[in-house]
Amino acid sequence: MIRATNRSIDAIREKVVHGERLHFQECLSLWDESVDVHELGELANIVRERKNGNYAFYNINTHLNPTNVCVYRCTFCAFRADLRDHRGYVMNDEQVEARGREAVESGCTEMHIVGGLHHQKDYDWYLNLIRNLHDHFPSLHLKGWTAVEINWFTHLTKRSVKDILIELQDAGLGSLPGGGAEIFHPEVRDKICEHKADTASWFEIHSTAHGLGMRSNATMLYGHIENAFHRTDHLLRLRDLQDQTGGFQTFIPLAFHPENTRLSHITKPTPMMDLRTMAISRLVLDNFDHIKAYWIMLGIGTAQASLAYGADDLDGTVRHELIYHDAGAKTPEVLGVNELERLIREAGREPVERDTLYRRIERDGNSWKATIPVLQPLD
Ligand code: V47
């Protein structure tokens, strides 16, 4: 590990203040415990406020996990079930439609859809789920199927990534969530999710989506068997693709929750590690507009604090979240708008309801519209 001396931190501060890019060794040095986490937060806050002013974004959203049955056995996952497991479930069309109706009636602008790769469901099942939801509820932005699912569809159909994405886009898919990224470096990836979409596929899928005009998010699962080198490598790979396409909207660092997983012997990352990861993500990913503090995963207190450590978004009201709650998250199942706004104000920020594409939402009774152009950050 390269240690950051006082002098090197001063040099990094200079670069941050002048909006200059940090190189690999500088990024790596920030993980060293000798670098004060609050100093990192202060630097990350400079970038955060330069990009997003005092705004803190949230959306009104819901989650849909149509099945938890999955052919893969990622070591960190508490959500998945085997085909014949009593915990396994598959939602039918009526149940999916009821979720769509509930979402629209409760004012949601977005449905976040991810699930298992079911042994017996063909590609059309996943495609039609998107088509049916979009046909019935066209106002809902469908942010669905991670690169891992898209990669699975190419195996099922022997078709290209581009073909599949065009078809899903035509059916109503709005954007791709950032999941399935885990840790890109093969030293870690091969140990925690050996068989699923590899790093090259993950990048090919996001790059192809961006080429089709579709936006996507990116994540990093930290706090398990990876180290600072792997995290730095992960962030820089994302920064490289963003330089080429500009199609990523948000980066979401995901803290590992060990309960009920095959890595349950590992201790969950501390709030200080969460804040350090948030701040370093903001400093390294200089070409990402947004860094999200996903309150479901961080807990409400750390998510609030993250708004001063580089984050500018809390995700949404969230309803029906299963992946983190199966893995021991103690956060509530849903937060009301008033509560989210109160948490943001209490953190000294100005809440802005956004849609998935970061346009400001204006509401009038039960109707809403997204304002165009996209909200411009304050300078
Ligand atoms: O890829 C699974 C992670 C991801 C655990 O795009 C776990 O807006 C911690 O990607 N402990 C899926 N993490 C969730 C995801 C996401 C979440 C919120 C917003 C967005 C977005 C995307 O969850 C998986 C994996 O990295 N995960 N199990 C666990 N036990």
In short:
By secondary structure, this protein is an alpha/beta fold. The chain contains 15 helices and 12 strands. Helix 4 (93-105) runs parallel beside helix 5 (123-136), helix 5 (123-136) packs parallel to helix 7 and helix 6 crosses helix 9 (199-211).
Keywords:
15 helices; alpha/beta; TIM Barrel; globular; seven-stranded parallel beta sheet; three-stranded parallel beta sheet; binds ligand V47; about 375 residues; disordered C terminus
Bound molecules: ligand V47
Helical segment count: 15
Largest sheet: 7 strands, parallel
Please bin the fraction of helical residues.
Answer: 40-55%
Number of strands: 12
- CATH fold title: TIM Barrel
The CATH class turns out to be Alpha Beta
Which structural class should the secondary elements be placed in? Answer: alpha/beta
- Average pLDDT: 94
Radius of gyration: 20 Å
Q: What CATH architecture label applies?
A: Alpha-Beta Barrel
Beta-strand percent range: 5-15%
Strand line-up in the sheet with most strands:
2-3-4-5-6-7-8
CATH homologous superfamily title: Aldolase class I
Total number of domains: 1
Order of helices and strands: HHHEEHEHEHHEHHEHEHEHHEHHEEE
- Globally, the shape reads globular
Distance between the termini: 36 Å
Low-confidence regions: 373-379
